[in-house]
Amino acid sequence: MSVDEREPNDGPTVAGAQDLGAFSGDETLTIRGTLAKGGNDGSKYTGDLDVFAFTLGQPGTLDVSVDWTDGADVDVAIYDGNIKVLASDGTANKPAKAALPSANGKYVLGVYSKDNPTAYTVTIRYAKAAGGGGGTGTCPTTPLLPATRVAGGCTMDAVTPTCAVADLRNGGSFEIDWTTNQTMCEGPHKLQITGDPPSEANSVTYSYSSSYNGNDARMTPNIGGFAKITAADIATVTSTSGIYYYRVGAFYGSATEARAFQVLK
User: Fold this and answer.
1) Domains detected in the chain
2) How would you write the pLDDT of the chain (265 residues) with one tens digit per residue?
3) What is residue 233's three-state secondary structure?
4) 51 Cβ contact partners less than 8 Å away, ≥ 6 residues apart
5) Neighbours of 135 (CB within 10 A)
6) Could you write out the DSSP letters of every residue in 37-87?
7) Beta strands in the chain (DSSP E)
8) Are 201 and 208 in contact (CB under 8 A)?
9) Residue 70 to residues 66, 73, 118, 156, Cα–Cα distance (Å)
10) Residue 75 CB: number of other CB atoms within 10 A?
11) What pLDDT is stored for residue 132 in this prediction?
C-alpha cells in the first residue's frame, strides 16, 4: 500500500500530523513525500517537518526506513502519543532507520532534513506478534496508574509503550526504560513487576543504585535507567492472562505510570 504526503503536516502534535489510520494486521506502507526546506540551528529542526500519525491495533514489531534522492541529511524519529521519542536515527546514514521491537497503540513518525530539500520515500513495516501477542488477555491502551510526582519536583517517566510485547522465549529479554527530570530523583530506583490479577503478594521488586553498571541493568543518578527482564526474573509471579504490570519509583516517592507487557507463549 502507498500514500502521498499531504500538507499541512508539520506537527508537532498528533493533531498537526497526517493521519495514516490504523494497522490491524501485517502491513507494509510506503509514503512518498518532499521536504521543501532543510535546516537545524543546533537545538531543533528549522526546515519543513513532515509528521504522520498511525495506530497499531495489536502488539507487534515496527520498522521504519527513509530513503531520499538528493544531497541531504535526512533524520527520522518515532514518538508515542505524547510526542516522546521512542526511537530515532539522527546520523548521516542512508537510509535512515528506526524500529520498535515491541509496539502497540498510537505513534507519531517525524521526517526531517538537517540541510537541503529533498524528495523521500518512507517504508513502514508492521508485523503482528506471533499468536496475537501471547497469553489470552487484552493489552491495556492506557496506563493503569498515573505517574506520582513528589512536592520537590521529581518527575519520572516510563519510556516503554503502554503495553508492549515481551518475547522471553529461548533466553530472550524485555527492556524497561525510564527517565527523570534531574530534580530530586535519587536512587535507589525500584522496579516492581506484578502479575495478573495484580497484588502485592503476586509481585517482585528489583532495586537499582548508581553503583551498578552492567549489560542487564543500569541506574544513573537524576537521569534514569533501564532493566532487561528475563523469564527467570518473573518466575515467581503468576499471570492468568500473560500480562504483567510494572512501574518504577524513586527514593522520595515519585513513580512512573503503571504500564504493562504481554509475554509470548
Assistant:
1) 2-128 (2.60.120.380), 156-263 (2.60.40)
2) 899 999 999 987 888 999 999 987 789 999 999 999 999 888 888 899 999 999 987 778 899 999 998 899 999 999 988 888 889 999 988 999 998 877 888 899 999 999 999 999 999 999 876 543 445 567 887 878 889 988 777 889 998 888 888 888 888 899 999 998 877 787 889 999 999 988 999 999 999 988 777 889 988 877 889 999 999 999 999 998 889 999 999 888 899 999 999 887 6
3) helix
4) 9, 10, 11, 12, 16, 17, 18, 108, 109, 110, 111
5) 19
6) ---B-SSSB-S--EEEEEEEEEEEEEEEEEEESSS--EEEEEEETT--EEE
7) 2-4, 18-23, 27-35, 50-68, 74-80, 85-89, 96-113, 118-128, 156-158, 163-166, 174-180, 189-194, 203-208, 217-220, 224-229, 243-249, 259-263
8) no
9) 13, 9, 5, 41
10) 21
11) 39
Coil, helix or strand at residue 143: coil
Side chain identity at 240, as an amino acid letter? T
Here the cell at position 172 is 530472550
In contact, 120 and 112? CB cutoff 8 Å: no
What's the one-letter identity of residue 237?
Answer: V
Residues in the chain: 265
